[in-house]
Each structure stands twice: as C-alpha cells, then as structure tokens.
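Here comes just one.
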Amino acid sequence: MIGIDVGGANLKVVDRNGVHIHYCPLWEKAPITSLLEQHITGMDEMAAVVMSGELADCFENKLQGISFIVDAVRRAFPKARFYGMDGVFHTTAVPQLAAANWLASADILREKYPRSVLLDIGSTTADIIPLGRFHELLGMTDLARLRKGYLLYTGMLRTNIATILQSVNLDGVQTPVSTEYFATSADAYLVLREIAPEQYTCDTPDHKEKTRDASLRRLARVVCADLDEIGETGALSIAQQFRQQQHTLICDAVRNCADSCHAEDVIVAGIGAPIFARELGGYDLTTELGPAADALPAFAVREIAIRDREFSR
C-alpha cells in the first residue's frame, strides 16, 4: 500500500520504504505516471490518493484537472482509489476529489488530537484545520476555506515576496517593492539560514543557482536594485521583513481559528513545522512522524485506507 498526494508543484509518495518527494509542476506537463512507476513493487500494488493539483492553471477547470490526475495515476496503479471531500474513496474522476488532501490529514489526526488546530505549512500554502470539527469540514471547498481563514496561499518556498510585502524599510527609508516575480519565500528563508539549499526544491524565479549569494541577488531585485547597491545587509533586511509579515499573517490566522473553535493547542506539520511550532508554542509532528510530517496528506490517505480496510472490499 502506498499513499500519494498529487499537488500542483509536488508529487509526494509514502510507502513502506519511507517518504519520497518529487518536484512535479503540473503546468509543465510533468510525468506523473513515470514518476509513480518508480514506486511499483508488485503487480497487486495498491495506491490511496489525494490531490490538490487540479487547480493548476494548465487546466480549463477543476474537473479537467481531476480527470488528468486520475488517468495519470491509474496508468501506474490501475487499482488506485481516490479520497474525496465527502470523506470516502472513489474509483473515478468526480468533483469531490478536488483539494481533499487537507481533509485526509484531518481525518487521520482527529481522534488523537480532537482539541487541536492543525497547521500544515508547506511550500505553497498554509492549511489551518480545526480537528474537532471534522464533520463540519466535509465538503468544504478551497473557496470556502479561503473565506473562513482556513487556507492561506502563502508558504515556505514558492510565495512571491511581493505578495506579502508592499514596501520595505531600507536604511530608514520606506521603499515600495516591485511586483515582478524576482524572489520567493525560499530565497528569504535560505539567506536567513532557516532552510538548507537542498530544501529549496522548487524552481528559482531566474532559473539560476540555489545558493545564498544567488538568493541575496534575487532579493535585491525586489527593490529594483543590484546587490552592490543595497549590500548584503539590505537584502537580509528584505528577507527579515518578509519573514516577520508572513509569520504574523499565519500565526494570527491560527490563533483566530483556535480561539473561535475553543481549541486547546496547536500541532504543526510541513516543511515549516519546526519554525512555526516554536513560534506558536505548538507540537511539531515531525517528532512523532519523522519525514512523513512533510508529506502529511500522502501519509494520512495511506493510513485511512489501511484503517478502513478500503482495498479489502
């Protein structure tokens, strides 16, 4: 049995051998099938699947994206079953499959952590999930989650700096930023030494190196400057101000959710788990799950299929 999470940018697989994360941008017609074929260990291999990649703008609508993903997965795993927003598994492309990955995480954690809010902070988004309200979450679309404050489209790697910062303070001067795609959150966290170069798994905006110096250059361009104009100190200041505003946005949303749901604590998963667990005084699921905490929906859907004996029916 393997668990698969097909996102717009990453393909995550959890199997008996561990966790495997492939950078797989769907808008570039990524080879989902061939990547998954690497994980086939037998003719009767079973796969439990969740997705969020149907939202990629290479598709005209979500159902087209769902159909593409279902077909690609089933070419590798013909018996695959897909977890939906109704909390059950499906064998065909149906609208309920859209963005059900976060619900799978809630489903597998809700009994152990019924009084907790889950923050899953990944490369692209922050999912904020009140685990004690699982039945109220069934059928909740991404649009509804955005409106509710349960989904923030900002993450540790792929967020354009200019979506968080409108201006920065450089040497006491408030300076507007360019809205060009010059630098990402990965650049900020890399220069602040909160991620390692090997964790910078997405493409860079300029398709150049994933090094501290290259990230500093990209950050300088956010204010239409070269690095020698503002120096390392200026580029680091941009990174620090981005970090502060992003963290304020996410932590405030988590605390608001916890207050409104009368949650007692916060648990954190995803690539940003160690950082945000410290800031929120929460529990880092990496302690319990190891690397699977960075691929929580893939881990969760596998566990749900085993728990519910999905493939024994």
In short: Residues 126 and 263 are 18 Å apart (CA to CA). The chain has eleven helices and 13 strands.
